[in-house]
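Lab channel / #folding
Pinned by the channel admin:
"Please post every new chain as: sequence first, then the structure tokens as a reply. Keep commentary short and put observations after the output so the thread stays searchable."

First post following the new format, from NK:
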Amino acid sequence: MAAGRRRTVAVVNDDDALVQLLRFNLEREGYAVRAFTNTDDALELVQVPADLALIDRTNRPLDGVELYARLRKSTGMPVMFLSAWAASVPDELNHLGLPPAQGYIQCPFALKEVLESVRKVFDATP
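Reply from TO:
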């Protein structure tokens, strides 16, 4: 990472209140945040990846797994799923022949768990 550049986290979730909660707390931790409340807009991540994406499994119009598949075709951007369906996502990705994501956090979640997981992903990537 270039000196002085803030890591960017993309939040993709159709629940605007949850997006704003995550945005506020991630920015407070020093991250830049790109927020998307639908997956059509989030497809811009294919061309301009973030340093990490937090994706809900049940987004619209594309579901989170389809968005993940499209991201995997063009970028190595780390992805974590934040979803009520997080427990089923690893098997679904495996069934589709997709590599595992960097994390799966079950909703409802503790904000502290999300922030710690984001830090761990960034600590593991240069």
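NK: The first helix runs from residue 16 to 28.
TO: also worth noting, The beta strands are 8-12, 32-36, 52-55, 79-83, 103-106.
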